[in-house]
Amino acid sequence: MSLEHFLKNAVSSWMKQEGPASDIVLSSRVRLARNLEKMKFPTLASNEEAQSVVDIVRQHFGGKSFHELGELEFLVMEELNNLEKRVLVEKHLISPQLAEDSAFGACLLSPNEEVSIMINEEDHIRIQCLFPGLQLNEALEVANTLDDWMESKVDYAFDEKHGYLTSCPTNVGTGLRASVMMHLPALVLTQQMNRIIPAINQLGLVVRGIYGEGSEALGNIFQISNQLTLGKSEEDIVQDLLSVVQQLIAQERSAREALEKTSNIQLEDRIFRSYGLLAYSRVMETKEAAKCLSDVRLGIDLGYIKDISNSILNELMILTQPGFLQQYAGGPLKPNERDIRRASLIRERMRLKK
Questions:
Q1: Is 347 within any annotated ligand binding site?
Q2: Does residue 92 have a known ligand-binding role?
């Protein structure tokens, strides 16, 4: 396995699988924040201390196999160019922060890209597990198993009263961030999201864009995650999130039914106009592509469009991002060149159908 394995395909193998409620929930993620005992957090560590963390993790886990996940590939951020790091961000394998502050950063990746373990991001270790559809409990189970395996080889910073100690106080306790990526076009079209987001925030959850904190909800894709990590068990945190997500699924399906009943011809027109733009445009910006892809995915889910795979949104939302476009081009592209190549790539993908 090599770096090329993680860069050449837009869709990770786990993304090609169908998951529960996958018409609305694109993916489920569980992330655990951990730090090594008696070592300064990355925000305060010297260069020597930060490098020591990298060395410890590489020694114990780099190239090691873990159950059915296979051999974990160890990547050092400083050895990657900016384009390669951007592609890993676009695939959600590393965070924007790790890509930007990468002097002593690294990551461990499983071959199917279901597991990513970031080193020296905000914390020494961040274990991330990604599953298709609504599978938060399954992701938590794998994350906990990985966590136990790592803790059998290294000592974590832990306090009997406060739990796992982290760089940011909001992660102290379980260190758990659970999130789901949801496609909610009908709630946006019926202007319900502006009312729903504040209500979700009041429940101790947060709504973000496709790449997490500070990012935009491109293509009507929203990330819903917990904010509280202290005072609740991991199971309770996941269950609270699941409860809200299940309500959102029901509301999105209800909004889709209402649109079909009250605005069917307008909805059908919107979907097929977007289909036409994707199929025939010669120039397309990121936001326009995301909007059209969202419309077409909705059309597939509602049965208006029958000859295109419903994985198209997952695939093209990543494939048409700037990093991937330049990776396929073999080098940097100017913004207008990216827009031309994006349109060309979408046209080719639409012709493949499946």
A1: no
A2: yes
Q: Determine whether the annotation assigns residue 31 to a binding site.
A: yes
Q: Is 213 annotated as a binding residue?
A: yes
Task: For residue 86, give the amino acid letter.
Answer: R
Is residue 182 marked as binding? no
Asked if the model's pLDDT at residue 230 lies above 90, the reply is: no
Average pLDDT across the chain, whole number:
89
Indicate left, alpha or beta for 230 from its phi (over 0: left) and psi (-120 to 50: alpha): beta
pLDDT for position 29: 95
pLDDT of residue 223: 93
pLDDT of residue 354: 59
Weakest mean pLDDT among 22-36, 47-61, 68-82, 241-255: 68-82
Secondary structure letter of residue 13 according to DSSP: G
Cα→Cα distances 1→80, 92, 290, Å: 16, 19, 32
Residue 208 annotated as binding? Answer: yes
**Residue 211 assigned ligand-binding role:** yes
Q: Which of 3, 4, 11 is nearest to 349 (CA)?
A: 11
* 115 annotated as belonging to a binding site for a ligand: no
Cα 322 from Cα 53, distance rounded (Å) = 32
Q: Could you give the C-alpha distances from 263 to 94, 188, 190, 268, 306, in angstroms and in order?
A: 41, 14, 11, 8, 20
29 is in an annotated binding site: yes
| Neighbouring C-beta atoms of residue 90, cutoff 10 Å | 23
Give yes or no for residue 182 having a pLDDT over 60. Answer: yes
Which stretches of the chain are DSSP H helices? 3-7, 47-61, 82-90, 96-100, 136-151, 185-189, 193-202, 234-262, 264-280, 286-302, 312-319, 322-329, 335-352
Backbone torsions φ then ψ of 138, nearest 5 degrees: -65, -40
Cβ 32 vs Cβ 145: under 8 Å: no
Q: State the average pLDDT over residues 69-94.
A: 89
CA-wise closest residue to 274 among 348, 180, 346 = 346
Neighbours of 166 (CB within 10 A): 23
Q: Tell me what the mean pLDDT of segment 311-340 comes to.
A: 85
CB 11 within 8 A of CB 93: no
181 labeled part of a ligand binding site = yes
* Matching residue, tokens 């994006």: 342
